[in-house]
Design a protein that fits this description.
With 439 residues, this protein is an alpha+beta fold. It has three domains: 78 residues, RNA polymerase II/Efflux pump adaptor protein, barrel-sandwich hybrid domain (OB fold (Dihydrolipoamide Acetyltransferase, E2P)); 116 residues, E3-binding domain (Dihydrolipoamide Transferase); 218 residues, 2-Layer Sandwich (Chloramphenicol Acetyltransferase), CATH 3.30.559.10. It is built from eleven helices and 21 strands. The strands form seven sheets. The protein has a six-stranded mixed beta sheet with strand order 12-21-20-19-15-18. A hairpin with a 4-residue loop joins β3 and β4. α3 packs parallel to α4 and α8 packs across α10. It is extended, with a radius of gyration of 30 Å.
Length: 439
């Protein structure tokens, strides 16, 4: 298992592409591995036969630990076998997501087929026991008539014998299952939550196709989002800026790029460049809050949200304050391409001091970006829209770009956040002079 970054201590073995007994060539993909940020490919260093794999899909494996052996058939693999402490890495638990569709009329007919029963207080159940379980004839007959397993009941008779009253308690405390639902469960459909029929009876509408497990990365994204909302006091300010100069500069850059004088620079990269300028003037937002301590940074490390086939990733451009606009744009494009292809280093997915998330290209007019703690600010970039603006005695329609700034109220109050947006708007409206390009 390779060490994919300075901070990476273990990786999740996501999927085996090759199995024991398969032949591989040097450089051929043998497995997919995941960090908490991205998915990577594990390739064979040599050609041969996969003699043995030491971990299952879903296992967390410490870095520098052998995950498999490639050699010649018949060779011993014992000297490469990991120690027990590495092999004991636990599989990652995944959450199941379930959905269902129901026809109301059919559900009513199905519910009528389920006999309502009084609900008794749930007894303590025993797991099925190995060997013979003593069940009274009356209990066995009651269980057989209703299709339940008497071994699941906690026996209250002498020596743990299961009596009729024990099976009845199990039956009345368990949800009823309609004949249609039972047949569908036997064919592979799964119960979605509790039964919705009379007395919590399970109907076919409560079942769904087998749920799809979240990927390891998706689960980690979900966990970070929950932790962000639970650990910060988030609020969002919205504002906009005249985008006339922004669009004019973009048009000039496009012409210069076609003439071979400049790299292509898009609207998002221009906005990121403007953010760097604004953060240099308003450094209060270029900070982190860790265990009650404020760490205000003099250097600007911008994270930008990137939509990838594996989920949301946030590559980080370091030391943006030292980059020209063309250099910043080229770095953003390179990191975005690596994130989409799954080749980005985990070191390039951490260390941001401020984050930009742009949904304007998808037509979003306003949204609430979520903080990435310990950062205290994240800027959402919205669509460019025509806005009526009073100019003297006349009203004109002008292109404006929208911004949604989420802040941590534990550190940043409304006034500093509003001032940052005003500074950012000033940079945007004078972007050509700020960019200082030779057009």
């Amino acid at each position: 298992m390779p060490k994919l970054g300075n901070t990476v201590e273990q990786c999740l073995l996501g999927r085996w592409v090759k199995r024991a007994g398969d032949t591989v060539e040097a450089g051929e993909l043998i497995a997919e591995i995941e960090t908490d940020k991205a998915t990577f490919e594990l390739v064979a260093p040599v050609g041969g036969t996969v003699l043995e794999v030491f971990f299952n899909e879903g296992d967390l494996v410490p870095v520098y630990t052998n995950v498999c052996v490639i050699g010649k058939p018949g060779e011993s693999t014992e000297e490469f076998r990991p120690r027990k402490d590495a092999a004991a890495a636990a599989p990652v638990e995944q959450q199941e997501v379930k959905t269902a569709l129901v026809q109301p009329q059919a559900a009513r007919a199905e519910a009528a087929a389920v006999q309502p029963q009084a609900r008794a207080e749930a007894p303590t159940f025993a797991a099925p026991r190995d060997g013979e379980v003593r069940v009274s004839p009356r209990a066995r007959r009651f269980a057989a008539e209703r299709g339940i397993d008497p071994r699941l009941a906690a026996g209250s008779g002498p020596g743990g014998r299961v009596l009729e009253q024990d099976v009845k308690a199990l039956f009345f405390a368990s949800p009823r299952i309609s004949p249609l639902a039972r047949a569908q469960m036997e064919s592979g459909r799964e119960l979605r939550g509790e039964g919705s029929g009379p007395n919590a009876a399970v109907l076919s509408r409560d079942l769904s196709e087998p749920g799809v497990r979240m990927s390891g990365i998706r689960e980690k994204i979900a966990r970070r989002m929950r932790e962000s909302l639970a650990s910060t006091a988030q609020y969002t300010l919205t504002s906009s800026a005249d985008a006339t100069g922004l669009l004019a500069l973009r048009k000039k850059i496009k012409a210069a790029h076609q003439a071979g004088r400049l790299p292509d620079i898009n609207i998002n990269e221009l906005v990121v460049f403007a953010c760097v300028k604004a953060l240099r003037e308003m450094p209060q937002l270029n900070a982190e809050l860790i265990d009650g301590k404020i760490y205000q940074h003099s250097r600007v490390h911008i994270g930008f949200a990137c939509d990838t086939p594996r989920g949301l990733l946030v590559p980080v451009v370091r030391d943006c304050q030292d980059l020209t606009l063309p250099a910043l744009a080229e770095k953003i494009k390179l990191l975005a391409q690596q994130a989409i292809e799954g080749t980005i280093s985990p070191d390039d997915l951490s260390g941001a001091t401020f984050t930009v998330s742009n949904l304007g290209g998808l037509g979003i007019e306003s949204f609430t970006p979520i903080l990435n703690p310990p950062q205290v600010a994240v800027l959402g970039v919205n669509a460019i829209q025509l806005k009526p603006v009073r100019r003297g005695a006349r009203v004109r329609y002008v292109d404006y770009i929208g911004f949604s700034l989420t802040l941590d109220h534990q550190l940043i109050d409304g006034a500093p956040g509003a001032r940052f947006l005003r500074v950012l708007a000033g940079v945007i409206e004078n972007i050509e002079s700020a960019a200082d390009l030779e057009l």
